[in-house]
Amino acid sequence: EYYDWVPQFGIYYLVGVDGLSLVMVLLTAILSLAAAIGSNHIEEREGFYYFLFLLMETSIVGVFISFNLFLFYIFWEMVLVPMYFLIAIWGGPRRKYAAIKFFIYTHVGGVVMLISFFYAYWVYYLNTGVFTFNLYQLIGLEPINGGYAAVASFLPRDIGLILFGALFFGFAIKVPVVPLHTWLPDAHVEAPSPISVILAGLLLKMGGYGIIRIAIPMIPFAAKELAWPITILALINIFYAGFVALWQADFKRLVAYSSISHMGIVVLGSIVGNVEGLTGAIFMMFAHGLINGLLFLLAGVYKHHLHTRIIEEIGGYTTYMPLASAFLVVGGLAGLGLPGLAAFVAEFLTILGAFKTWGLRVAVVVFGPVLSAGYILWAVQRIVFGPSKTPHETIKDLCLPEIISFTILTFLIVLLGVYPRILTDITAQFTSFFISKYF
User: Fold this and answer.
1) Rounded to 5 degrees, what are φ and ψ at 3?
2) H or E segment at 269?
3) What's the pLDDT at 408?
């Protein structure tokens, strides 16, 4: 869809979908529905809560369908405002600190990204005489003045590396890539659980999406030259966050660090330069959204029903919450990459792609799922199979809205695990073209 906005400066309302965008829009719709249903315990200022919730959903969809970089940036920054208030108003005891930290980190990334956009915009103008924020023109996929011209072709090597580094930095904060990750655990712990679903399931994916959609196509020669250092960063993400997760007593904080670890898989798959790796990265973004969405909603259930998220304190009450325990087992097994569930497909494809490119240099990546199994099984064993406790008050199991929300996510986790072609068929044309064009 295309409309003139400020055409003299190359600013247009240009939106659309391809294989990558469609997957992310579908994920947005599914997780927004699950999180909205899971918001049934929100009682304070409900109208304002749902207004901010829907504004955030709209902004996220805008990020995933924008093909004009100026419009992309507007939607990118629009996401921050409702998320800030959703954490600051309905969050935990340290909600204001977490909200401000989230806003500062992600806004800094957005500013660096915007400066990079304007630099590419200016370089393109100096060499073509045309002002444009049209992504397809900037990456040489759409003709301008009767020919094709990509901004990368006008950049010296050193400048191209710096520009790619700036773009990657802006998106890496959102992923987040270690050591730019410290805002995430605080934001997750303090945010209401339905908002944590959106934060982990969608906002982190904006970073991975930006790397695939903009950073690599904009400066492909820099992406290829920096592929090995970025691979190292991805491996650090996987293992550092995994080891930190092993030591978490708070179930929600454990899931937050597992998100950082799994997003390392996304970064790894996006940079290895083959169809298997890229397909695995996109599949992981979708699968991770479903799995961690389920786990964050469960963290909210434990907090609401048991008034705690401490793993040792939750354990022992699960005989009174059999449905919650069943969903926890499925979510935990999916998170560690059990065959037949969604994350296994993503991890298998990404590891295969990494080996095709780097060989035994990345052999350590096979221990990533082993580490995931360690911290997830540790938590599930203590929660589900801990010594039985006598409750001081009546404990209720899941209510109907929670059952509906959890069932939707669980069904999709299993479906994608046993029949991944539902997703890979959507992305096949995009991934094939992307790899042939940029690698």
Assistant:
1) -140, 145
2) helix 251-271
3) 93
Beta-sheet pairing, 2-6 with 11-14: antiparallel
Q: Which residues pair with residue 3 across a beta bridge?
A: 13
For residue 249, the tally of other CB atoms under 10 A from its CB is 12
Residue owning tokens 């020669």: 221
Contact 221, 154 (CB under 8 A): no
Query: Which residue's entry shows tokens 């490119």?
Result: 357
Query: Is the CB of residue 43 less than 8 Å from the CB of residue 72?
Result: no
| pLDDT of 392 over the 70 cut | no
Across 9-18, 67-76, 131-140, 384-393, least confident range: 384-393
Host H or E run for residue 14: strand 11-14
Helix 400-418 with 19-37: angle, nearest 10 deg: 150
Which structure tokens are listed for 371?
A: 């580490």
CB 242 within 8 A of CB 255: no
What values do phi and psi take at 292, rounded to 5? -70, -25
CA distance linking residue 199 with residue 88, whole number of Å:
14
d(CA 52, CA 7): 31
Distance CA 13, CA 64 (A): 14
Residue 65 has φ and ψ, to the nearest 5°, of: -115, 0
For 327-384, the pLDDT digits (tens) are: 999 999 999 889 999 999 999 999 999 999 998 888 888 888 888 888 899 888 888 8
Q: What is the CA radius of gyration of the chain?
A: 21
The DSSP call for residue 367 is G
Question: Where do we find the tokens 């719709």?
Answer: 29
Beta bridge partners of 25: none
Containing 140, the helix (H) or strand (E) segment is none
66 SS3 class: strand
Q: How far apart are CA 188 and CA 95, in angstroms?
A: 10
Range of lowest pLDDT (36-45, 247-256, 425-434) = 36-45
Within 8 A by CB and 6+ apart from 20, the residues are 209, 212, 213, 282, 427, 430
Q: Are 268 and 350 in contact (CB under 8 A)?
A: yes
Task: Please provide the size of the chain in residues.
Answer: 439
Q: d(Cα 249, Cα 399) in Å, to the nearest integer?
A: 26
For 18-47, what is each residue's pLDDT tens digit? 999 999 999 999 999 999 998 888 888 889
Q: What is the largest CA-CA distance in the chain?
A: 77
